[in-house]
Amino acid sequence: MKLYVVGFGCGSHENMTFEADAAIQKSDLIVGYTTYVELIKRLYPDKNFESTGMRHERERVQFALEKAVEGLTVSLICSGDCGVYGMAGLAIEIAEKSFPNVDVEIISGVTAALSGGAILGAPLTHDFAVISLSDLLTPMDKIEKRLKLAAEADFTIILYNPSSKKRKDYCARACDLLLEIKSADTVCGFVKNIGRNGRESGVMTLEELRNFPADMFTTLFIGNSETRKIGNKMVTPRGYRNG
User: Of the candidates 241, 242, 237, 239, which has an alpha carbon nearest to the alpha carbon of residue 121?
Assistant: First the structure.
């Protein structure tokens, strides 16, 4: 009885790890969020898929584990890394409680902070913090506290889920909070549709980022006090000194 929890990266085969590809190839059934299943289907046309919508995470994990108990090898897929805002923790929790005989194996993937960072240049060469602006599972007051503390500690900050149809002003609200602590000309960047058609990226100031039309497929990068723009790249120095 086997369940792989697989982080497949941004959706392109080139950005998927060999380990993730191997797990999916070995699986009889691939289970995932509807949008993710549509991304992966084209890469594995001979596989069987099952999908559920947003906010059905627990049911999705339960279903995948039930199918594993029935004797199928199952891959539960997540975009990016399955342990970064993914299903890895929930799968382990539910398996321990209700499906102790299922072997759950976590397969890491490339999260958007890393794949997006590479597109922008080198924004994460020093300490950084990843924060999601989605308040579906985290209260907004806690998100705001984390933003303020990360800014005060001078981390480079990566923002996931910066905006949506129901949260159109969340990016601007986050920037307003950061502007209380950070300089308006702090170097920032965005990457939209990483590894997919219509990819866009750019470097701008924090003041400009405040009015940027981000969406759920956009990852935002806010530099620390030493981050700078070199050509069209965003670079955070590691602190090396020339001899």
Answer: 237
Give the whole-angstrom CA distance, residue 106 versus residue 14: 20
Angle at CA of residue 130, ends 165 and 227, nearest 5°: 105
**% the chain with pLDDT above 90:** 83
Homologous superfamily of 112-235: Tetrapyrrole methylase, C-terminal domain (3.30.950.10)
The answer to whether residues 108 and 6 touch, using CB atoms and an 8 Å cutoff, is no
Q: Which of 172, 189, 75, 97 is nearest to 133 (CA)?
A: 172
CA 2 centroid distance within chain? 25
Query: pLDDT (tens digit, 9 = 90+) per residue, 173-227?
Result: 999 999 999 999 999 999 999 988 889 999 999 999 999 999 989 999 999 999 9
pTM: 0.92
Q: Which residues pair with 132 in a beta bridge?
A: 160
Helices 88-98, 57-69: inter-axial angle, 10-degree rounding? 50
Category of 53 on φ-ψ map: left (φ > 0), alpha (ψ -120 to 50) or beta: beta
Q: Which of 34, 102, 112 is nearest to 71 (CA)?
A: 102
Q: Which CATH architecture has domain 2-107?
A: 3-Layer(aba) Sandwich (3.40)
In this structure, are residues 40 and 73 in contact, taking their beta carbons and an 8 Å threshold? no
CB neighbour burial string for 12-44, b if at least 16 within 10 angstroms, e if fewer: beebbbeebbebbeebebbbbbeebbebbeeeb
Task: Determine the Cα–Cα distance for residues 79 and 111; give it in Å rounded to an integer.
Answer: 8
